[in-house]
Write a structure and sequence with these properties.
The protein contains 9 helices and 15 strands. The chain has helices at about 5-10, 20-30, 45-55, 60-70, 100-105, 130-135, 280-285, 345-355, 365-380, and strands spanning about 120-130, 135-150, 165, 175-180, 185-190, 200, 215-225, 235, 255-260, 265-270, 270-280, 285-295, 295-300, 310-315, 330-335. β4 (about 175-180) and β5 (about 185-190) form a beta hairpin. The longest helix has 16 residues, at about 365-380.
Length: about 375
């Protein structure tokens, strides 16, 4: 398979200056370097083409031969020399790859120290009563977090002793490792294990934190619980987590909420659900009753003829709407109860009522009534 034109590979014309070629190489090398483009299966071959093109065009003698003879200048026995790359040896033997080294040193952050990093978030769970969740409250949280050592104030040095340059990284905060590969010399950078990226260490480590600059300490914080909160919601205390590194900000404290169930109310969002038992007489005649709410008792008038299972809504008697305005509703579900024990007087009254409502209360008349009801339903009556 014929090779691509080196000028085309770098995207420059034949009159390009050495600076133009170098700039083009940096751009294309960044685009195709295998360590940076691990998801591109063709990156390795493309980078090889870019590197080969640059090594030829950046060298005046090699470029002159290429301009005169093309790729044949570097073929075995060709006009350019004995080896596959003429006088320059095999691929990867050009120069000392200093441009490539400098290039990827820049990509990976160069010699800059590792910057400040945010502290770790911490989590805890608190349990609230139904009323605390409904009206809001204040809770005191006790927990442990990583914070500045109280003895050395976070610098890791025994009080009165100096902070010195890290001898392992020379104050750079990073350890640089050079690796020679078939694609040239690459660089990997990692935080210095001695100074943890700070570039400085304590000459005499603090006896309390052993030079770490931080210890786990008891923390006490008061947090405000908003009204209307529910199980599964979270309250975030900004800066309540562990300290950051190298002057980075504290993490957050994330408080998960669990609400104990109520004895009589059930919850549906901001609405409260309540089952209200009423007697046959109350359902038939209507009545004025008292129903409980979270704020006390509320008078409610039952309309006559209400059926078991029907619902009625008391507006604004529910829970505050979290992160909103107003309140939900109290939804009453009517449950007509059947007495299990009757006094003599109640039995006599029910018997009279039965005769009034069902004067022919035998099995035949009941069967006829059932058929009549089914017929009326089919006729839409």
């Amino acid at each position: 398979m014929s090779k691509k034109d080196y000028y085309e590979v770098l995207g420059v014309d034949k009159n390009a200056s050495k600076d133009d070629i170098k700039k083009a190489f940096r751009k294309m090398a960044k685009k195709y370097h295998p360590d940076i483009n691990k998801d591109n299966p063709d990156a390795e071959e493309l980078f090889k083409e870019v590197n080969e093109a640059y090594q030829v065009l950046s060298d005046d003698e090699a470029r002159a031969k290429y301009d005169q003879f093309g790729h044949a200048a570097f073929e075995q026995g060709g006009p350019g020399g004995a080896g596959p790359f003429g006088d320059f040896g095999g691929f990867g033997g050009f120069g000392d790859f200093s441009d490539l080294f400098d290039l990827f040193d820049t990509f990976s952050g160069g010699r800059r120290r590792r910057g400040p990093t945010r502290g770790q978030d911490l989590g805890t769970t608190i349990e609230l009563t139904f009323e605390e969740a409904a009206f809001g409250t204040t809770k005191t949280i006790h927990y442990k977090r990583l914070d500045n050592c109280p003895k050395c104030n976070g610098n890791g040095a025994e009080p009165g002793t100096p902070i010195v340059q890290c001898p392992q990284c020379g104050g750079q905060g990073q350890i640089r490792q050079e690796i020679n590969t078939m694609f040239g010399r690459s660089v990997s950078l990692r935080p210095c294990p001695t100074c943890h990226g700070d570039g400085r260490i304590a000459k005499t480590p603090c006896s309390q934190c052993r030079g770490e600059g931080s210890t786990y300490q008891e923390e006490r914080k008061e947090i405000n619980i908003p009204a209307g909160i529910d199980t599964g919601n979270k309250v975030i205390v900004r800066g309540g987590g562990s300290k950051g590194e190298l002057g980075g900000p504290y993490g957050d404290l994330i408080v998960s909420i669990r609400v104990r169930p109520h004895e009589i109310f059930k919850r549906e969002g901001a609405n409260l659900l309540l089952e209200v038992p009423v007697s046959f007489a109350q359902a038939a005649l209507g009545d004025e009753i008292e129903v409980p709410t979270l704020e006390g008792r509320e008078t409610y008038k039952i309309p006559s003829g209400i059926q078991s299972g029907e619902t009625r809504r008391l507006r604004g008697k529910g829970l505050p709407i979290l992160k909103g305005s107003g309140k939900g509703d109290l939804i009453l579900t009517i449950k007509v109860t059947t007495p299990t024990r009757l006094s003599l007087e109640e039995r006599e009254l029910f018997e009279k009522l039965l005769k009034i409502q069902n004067p022919d209360s035998d099995s035949r008349s009941i069967f006829e009534n059932i058929k009549k009801n089914i017929f009326n339903k089919r006729q839409g009556k």
